[in-house]
Amino acid sequence: MLDWLDAFLITGLFQVVMIIGLALLLHLQLGLTRIANFGVVGFWGLGMFVFGVLYVQVDWPFGDPWQFLVCTALATIVTGVAGVVVGWFISDQDTDGVLVTTLGFAAAVQILATTEDEWTGGARGLGGLRIPFDVGKVKEDEFAWLLVTTAVVVGIFLFARQVHRSPYGRILIGIGGNEPLARSLGKPTYRTKLGLFAVTSAVMGLLGALAAVQLRFLDVGQIGVTVTLAAMVGLVLGGSARVWGAVVGVVLTVGLFDILVQSYLPLPREWYTQTIPVLREAIFGATLIVVLIFRPLGILGDMRRDKLMRKLHGE
User: Fold this and answer.
1) pLDDT digits (tens, 9 = 90+) for 77-98
2) Does the pLDDT at position 277 exceed 60?
3) Bridge partners, 218 (sequence order)
C-alpha cells in the first residue's frame, strides 16, 4: 500500500518531527523563560536509554502494548525527576552557569550510557526494541509510528500555543523578561521555573522513548551534541519567541538537509559516512552564527503581542 513511499523519506520525516518536538519544548524553556538549556540531548537520551533498558533487560509479565506503555511512563517519570534535580541546580545561576550545568548533564548521560555496558550495551549498543504493534510490513509499521509521533508533537505544539494565551504564559514571559521584577510583584518565579523545566524535560524523555522504538537499536553515538544543535539552530532561525518558529526553522534546516540533501541529491556514496555529518554540523553552526548576528529574532521575529504594543504606542 505504501510502495510509493521511500523508506529513507520515512526516516527523514521522523527526524524532522522529532527535532520539531524538541525545539518546541526548548521554545518554552529558552524562548519564553530564558532558561538556556544546552543539554536537550541529555534529557532526550536519558528517556531513550531508560526506556530501552526497561524494555529489553526487564522480564515483564506482560507484552505489548502494556510493556511499551509501562516502560514509556517510567522513562518519562525518571527524566522528569532528572529535570527537577537539574532545575534545582540551575535555579539561581546566571546564563553561563545554566549553560555549563546543562551541558555537563548531557555529557554525564552519555558517559553513563557508555560505561554501564551491563545494562545499556555500552559501545556495543542495545538491540531488541520493536514497534509495539503490527499493521503490516515493516514500512507500514514505521509509517504508523511516524503518525503516532507526529500526533504527540502536535499535542506539544497545541500546548505551547495555549501557554502563550494563558496567564501562566504571561508569568513565564515576565520571568524571562525581568525575573527580579516578577519576583517583586509576588510571582512564584522559582516554583514556576522549576515546574516548567521538570515538565518539559519529562516530555523530552517521552520523545526519547518514541525515538528508541523507531531506531530499534540504541548506540551512544545517537545522543551526541548534534541533537541539541539541530533543535537550537531550528528554533533560533525560525524565531525563539514564536511557537511557529520551531516548526519553520527545523523544516528549513533539518528538513532540507536530512531529506533533500541526504536522500535526493546525487552525492558520492563515500560522503555519507564522514563528509556529510561533518558538513551538516558546520552548516548548522554557521547558520546559528549568521542568524544571531544579522537577525537575532529569527525569521518570524518577536511575539505578536510585542508587535501590537509597539503599534499601539506608535513605535
Assistant:
1) 999 999 999 999 998 888 889 9
2) yes
3) 126
Q: Cell triple for residue 124?
A: 556495543
pLDDT at 273: 67
Q: Given the C-alpha cell 526497561, which residue does it identify? A: 54
Q: How far apart are CA 9 and CA 143, in angstroms?
A: 10
126 beta partners = 218
Report the candidate in 135, 199, 203 with the shortest Cα–Cα distance to residue 172: 199
Beta-carbon contacts of residue 163 (< 8 Å; ≥ 6 apart):
28, 32, 169, 172
Q: Calculate the dihedral angle through the C-alpha atoms of 41, 13, 56, 127, rounding to the nearest 10 degrees.
A: -90
Residue given cell 555537563 in the structure block: 104
Counting DSSP H helices and E strands in the chain, the numbers are 14, 0
Nearest-angstrom CA–CA distance, 315 and 311 = 6
Report phi then psi at 241, rounded to 5: -90, -5
State in Å, rounded, how far the first CA of the chain is from the last one.
56
Among 63-67, 76-80, 129-133, 278-282, which stretch is predicted with the lowest mean pLDDT? 278-282
Distances (CA, A) of 27 to 81, 231, 245: 21, 10, 8
Q: Are 277 and 285 in contact (CB under 8 A)?
A: no
> What is the rounded CA–CA span in Å between residue 121 and residue 115?
9
The Cα-based distances of 177 to 180, 187, 283, 294 in angstroms read 9, 13, 31, 22
